[in-house]
Specification:
three-stranded antiparallel sheet; globular
């Protein structure tokens, strides 16, 4: 696209493009926008928005650099920040294995969603783990511009029918959604499904969850489509059908709410506000249940990344008291990350005090931590007001029945009463008034 449409102008030093694929053109509800080959705006169907406007791609050219209020101060801060943090244990872990490290970590914690949310450990987790990927295939760390963490994985598959496939990834979320959730135990097949979704232009979390939903529906005898747990070929064909809106793919392309209704699977469909969760089992990590329920765009893990404090011992995973307070602190701080376009993986490095310093350098303002917190709250309240204006109802901020009424095989559970307690605490601390916010809110 860049070669075809970019102007031959020596004043433009950099060129780039964002593009959609066939899924976006066919208005698949979870179509992506991709840029720089592998990087994607993956969730919530932004690709379908461009597709609806008949826009295939947008090409960018330019040479201007971003200006900061204190340019020398920002450069000096960036240099010292890198020197102070490049040996941080978290930085070194991400550089070594990227997000693929999460497969074994989550499996050992008993929080890896498996067999379409029926279990939280996967017997074959080691086969799709980051450790296995790095041993059996060629994997190199890859960084965004000027990042010293380099969490990306440039992977070349070295064996099997997909030998020589090159991809950035697969990331943890794809290893969970097509791997443990669909019981596909070959990491090479997950990598291929990742590449296929990228080329067709669809989100791997939603695609994997929809494959898993139909697999479970077949086990329950409610559907008879040719798709079985552990069968990568079945998943591959279904992904292609979704992108092309062919057969059952036409229904799945409209998202999980329509699919669950069409196939009488509403009681087992796992989503919040029509968005499927990322790979963190809320019956084990109860704060992630609250995070999924309250996120303004559905079951999103990135608004708070609250698995971090629950897994690291900052707060017990099964505790519900004071969980909302800590989650709000993470949510407010990460809201300011979004205003700066900071990576989530720097959350351990940017405390409130660090954010105060860098925000003041960039903007030229002299706000205190308390004032920056107030700004974050204002942003979050504006998002809330937008959702209410667009019709958000209290009962939509709940987890699906499968996650609150079905315990895991090991006995872990998250009850309606526990969810209701955390939600009410969250609303109270936010200062939000929720009408009829009792059992109806979460049951």
């Amino acid at each position: 696209v860049v070669e075809r449409y970019a102007e031959d102008n020596s004043n433009y030093k950099k060129k780039g493009a964002v593009v959609i694929g066939p899924a976006g053109e066919n208005l698949v509800r979870f179509a992506i926008i991709a840029n720089d080959k592998w990087r994607c705006a993956g969730r919530t169907g932004t690709g379908a928005v461009l597709g609806s406007k008949m826009v295939k791609a947008v090409v960018f050219q330019g040479s201007e650099k971003r200006q900061y209020a204190d340019q020398p101060g920002v450069y000096a801060y960036a240099k010292s920040f890198m020197q102070e943090n490049r040996e941080h244990p978290g930085v070194k872990a991400y550089k070594k294995l990227g997000t693929t490290q999460m497969v074994n970590l989550m499996n050992h914690a008993g929080a890896l969603p498996t067999r379409y949310w029926n279990d939280s450990t996967f017997d074959d987790a080691e086969q799709i783990s980051g450790e296995k990927l790095h041993i059996e295939h060629e994997v190199k760390p890859h960084a965004c511009a000027k990042c010293f963490m380099a969490c990306g994985r440039l992977t070349r598959i070295m064996k099997g029918r997909h030998k020589d496939l090159q991809i950035e990834g697969p990331e943890y979320e794809t290893l969970y959604s097509f791997g443990s959730l669909c019981m596909i135990k070959e990491v090479e097949e997950v990598a291929y499904l990742n590449d296929l979704c990228d080329r067709l232009g669809m989100d791997t979390i939603s695609a994997g969850n929809l494959c898993g939903l139909l697999m479970e529906g077949k086990v329950l005898g409610r559907t008879d489509f040719d798709i079985d747990y552990g069968n990568a070929d079945h998943a591959i064909e279904l992904v292609k059908a979704i992108s092309a809106r062919k057969g059952v793919g036409d229904i799945l392309a409209d998202g999980i709410i329509r699919a669950a209704k069409e196939f009488d699977l509403e009681d087992i469909a796992v989503h919040v506000k029509g968005l499927e969760p990322a790979g963190y089992e809320p019956r084990k990590l109860k704060g992630m249940g609250l995070a999924f329920a309250t996120s303004p765009r559905g079951a999103c893990h990135l608004r708070t990344t609250f698995y971090k404090p629950e897994l690291s011992g900052m707060i017990p995973p099964d505790q519900i008291e004071e969980k909302a307070e800590m989650l709000i602190d993470f949510e407010d701080r990460l809201c300011l990350f979004d205003t700066l376009i900071l990576c989530r993986f720097y959350r351990d490095l940017y405390s409130w005090e660090e954010l105060e310093e860098v925000l003041n350098l960039v903007t030229g303002q002299k706000k205190s931590v308390a004032q920056w917190r107030d700004l974050a709250v204002d942003i979050i309240n504006m998002i809330r007001e937008f959702n209410l204006r667009e019709g958000l109802q209290p009962h939509e901020e709940r987890l699906p029945p499968k996650l609150t009424k079905q315990a895991l095989p090991n006995g872990d559970k998250l009850t309606v009463e526990e969810m209701n307690y955390m939600l009410q605490d969250y609303y109270r601390l936010r200062g939000w008034v929720v009408s009829e916010a009792s059992e109806e809110t979460v049951s």
